[in-house]
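job 3f2a | input accepted
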Amino acid sequence: MKKIFTSFLLLFIILADVSLGSNAKSALFAQISINESQFLYFGNNIKKNIMVMDSYGNYIKDIPLKTPIKELGSIFSCPCGGYLLVSDPLGDRIVSIDDADGNIRHILLVNDPYDVAISKNRIRYEGVIGNNKSSIFIYNDNGKLLREISKSKKFNEASSILMDIDNYIWINDKKSGEIIKLDIKGNVISKTRNEDLKYSVDIDSDKYGLIYLITKNKLILKFDKRGRLLNKFNIDITSYPLSMCIDPVESFIWIVCEDNSLYKFDINLNLKLKINDILKIEKKKVIYLRIGSRILEKVGFDTIILDAPPFIDKNSNRTLVPIRAISEAFDANVTWNDRERRVTIKLSSTVINLIIGSREAKINGKSVFLDCPPMIINGRTFVPLRFVASAFGATVIWLSEEQKIIISI
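job 3f2a | predicted structure (409 res):
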């Protein structure tokens, strides 16, 4: 009886370990991708949706998947925006979805799809690795199959795919440790062998057409357009990398790892941002402003044209911003009392009162003091940027070189 119980307990532990391992893998099996609008897309296998982040790591919205997905695999965004390709390995298909509302554009039926890519050329092609990594399928952007490139004398195992700005196809062959460059018809242009390529996990290119591969042993290999190795870098990350994408505008390198951490590096591999657990961050409303610009960008939504732009007050050397426009961008209610020259802002349970010309403001009845008093410019009330953070409980980032303001709640 004791032996039976011990065997049962051992079986239970093994099954539990397999189950937990499977869940851990599926939580972050999907890749990340970024487009020229600098929106970062991440496939959340737990909620079966696409998380959208801005280039500063703010989680701004979700794209619902309007067709049942068994497992989110690879994800790739059209470089200029508009749609995403998402693989469903368990469903033997690729789904093309609108990146605004999640509506289905077309579905590609592919046996055992592994990795996907959209070309960075203006003439868009879609590339899919399938058939147990033995075939590359090339489609136009309407989902019409143009050709199948089989592995015969070209590659042993197509492990990841990239389609560059010149519509060349780059394949990483982990089995042979090669990076292979093909033309759009499948003819081999070049092959480069490197032992580190046997451990690669993802491939992408920057705006100059240089090719980058990231490996499980935390290396980034950089190749030129001919496939020649230029350099390799060690990267300081806490876990094995799962996916990498490169910002096509500023060439920032984004990496997501098995422990759910997300990293942003500049082109010199200096760390710019780290998120410890991408699945635990909260959704935010975010706006961008620039000194001297009348454009208020409500990230992920339509832009707003201001009556007067933010400016730096010469007397106080403080950045002043239009309080009504910012408040309404965050869905606050703003009222004006002309007799008392008082602005009242209601945001959730917070009530803010400001009086033109007075440095004293009140937040839920408690007095706070501003660096400089609110003032009216072109009929609009302006307040110090620092006050917005304390009054709204917002996070404010000031980028001095760009004269840019980022406010998130």
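job 3f2a | Residues 157 and 173 are 5 Å apart (CA to CA).
job 3f2a | closed
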